Automatic annotation (TrEMBL):
GO cellular component entries: cytosol
Cited InterPro entries: ADH-like_C, ADH-like_N, ADH_Zn_CS, GroES-like_sf, NAD(P)-bd_dom_sf
Cofactor(s) listed: Zn(2+)
Protein name (Swiss-Prot/TrEMBL): Alcohol dehydrogenase 1
EC number: 1.1.1.1
Catalytic activity: a primary alcohol + NAD(+) = an aldehyde + NADH + H(+); a secondary alcohol + NAD(+) = a ketone + NADH + H(+)
Keyword Chloroplast: no
Stated family: Belongs to the zinc-containing alcohol dehydrogenase family.
Length: 380
């Protein structure tokens, strides 16, 4: 048992005091984990677009002061009451959504939408007692997505923690806890392209490139990348994208362009933009009879999906998925094993690295569109 078990830990955390203002490095107090919680020493964390959206708080409820961060890897420092699945020293990935293992969703083989621990972007406290485990001079600081990984230590519900192979390099596999799995899962778990098939990927950000990686490892022979930003194309080649279509280069709908170059449509398409028109195109560009489209992007709150019902009668299928249909605790360890067996390439997603004290640089890289993933090292 470590000397810190049951004690308040003082450590550094990057606190977002106000929307859109640089994070401030503070000394925070991190309370011990309570019932069904674990305290984790974070070693590496990375920045995802979702952190930026909630930091900007445009169109999101502002919850401040808050410790952001949800893509990370670390080691369990101590565990609270009734925790049997994890022990100090375990290597783990915290995840923004969870698995209680008791509800209808957790018991269903098909669903990962846990009733208890499903993502909640507005909650800034722990479920057990509706309190925060973080404070500065007694003033509570809110949690984010139940993970708050921009802190040297954090407290997480045990159902939002995946225990992984201790030999896995945490500075690489940390990206599996959000961005990579969000794109790769929709392809391999939901669209399931067969060897030799044709796949369209709409949006070539980190999520779309992970979707392309899923198509590559599934043996797709043509992977068509669709993006309105042509500068994304060069990088996408490294992720197995074989052809590019920029909707802006054509004076007809992109679904028609894709139908022409694929003899009627693609076998599968994955939408990773969040744009409603791209969602409609991603559906309409699949082949009659067997084509399947999977929506991943998070749409604007007022968006409405409009298509002619004959598309469904013509046997095109539309699906959507959340966190790639992965159950965080049960499924992520095997994705880590795929990386360990060299079936996945994560290195190409990691374009930048900074020390924790320079975390605001990671925001700049993302806002400038320079980075796919910037790893933030907690040890200087
Ligand atoms: P990103 O901004 O890096 O990439 C999105 C890409 O889409 C950009 O290159 C942009 O140019 C392109 N794009 C925008 N509109 C387009 C259009 N009409 N046609 C073609 N391309 C278009 O974003 P990201 O981090 O890769 O995330 C992609 C999406 O996935 C976002 O909507 C994000 O909110 C969502 N997401 C979903 C989940 C989930 O579980 N469903 C989880 C995390 C993120
Ligand atoms: Zn559940």
């Amino acid at each position: 048992m470590s000397s810190t078990t049951g004690q308040v830990i003082r450590c550094r955390a990057a606190v977002a005091w106000e929307a859109g203002k640089p994070l401030v490095m503070e000394e925070v107090e991190v309370a011990p984990p309570q019932k069904m919680e674990v305290r984790i020493k974070i070693l590496y964390t990375s920045l995802c677009h979702t952190d930026v959206y909630f930091w900007e708080a445009k169109g999101q409820n502002p919850v401040f002061p808050r410790i952001l961060g949800h893509e990370a890897g670390g080691i369990v420092e101590s565990v609270g009451e009734e925790v049997t699945d994890l022990a100090p020293g375990d290597h783990v990935l915290p995840v923004f959504t969870g698995e209680c293992k008791q509800c209808r969703h957790c018991k269903s083989e098909e669903s990962n939408m846990c009733d208890l621990l499903r993502i909640n972007t507005d909650r800034g406290v722990m479920i057990h007692d509706q309190k925060s485990r973080f404070s500065i001079n007694g003033k509570p600081i809110f949690h984010f997505l139940g993970t708050s990984t921009f802190s040297e230590y954090t407290v997480v519900h045990v159902g939002c923690v995946a225990k992984i192979n201790p030999l896995a390099p945490l500075d690489k596999v940390c990206v599996l806890s959000c961005g990579f799995s969000t794109g790769f899962g929709p392809t391999v778990n939901v669209a399931k392209p067969m060897k030799g098939s044709t796949v369209a990927v709409f949006g070539l950000g980190a999520v779309g490139l992970a979707a392309a990686e899923g198509a590559r490892v599934s043996g797709a022979s043509r992977i068509i990348g669709v993006d309105i930003n042509s500068s994304r194309f060069e990088q996408a080649k490294k992720f197995g994208v074989t052809e590019f279509v920029n909707p802006k280069d054509h004076n007809k709908p992109v679904q028609e362009v894709i139908a022409e170059i694929t003899d009627g449509g693609v076998d599968k398409s994955i939408e990773c933009t969040g744009n409603i028109n791209a969602m409609i195109s991603a559906f309409e560009c699949v082949h009659d009879g067997w084509g399947v489209a999977v929506l991943v992007g998070v749409p604007h709150k007022d968006s409405v999906f409009k298509t002619h019902p004959v598309n469904f009668l013509n046997e095109k299928t539309l699906k959507g998925t959340f966190f790639g249909n992965y159950k965080p605790c049960s499924d992520l360890p095997s994705v880590v094993e795929k990386y360990m067996n060299k079936e996945l390439e994560l290195e190409k997603f990691i374009t930048h690295e900074v020390a924790f004290s320079e975390i605001n640089k990671a925001f700049e890289y993302m806002l400038n569109g320079e980075s796919l993933r910037c790893i933030i090292r907690m040890e200087e």
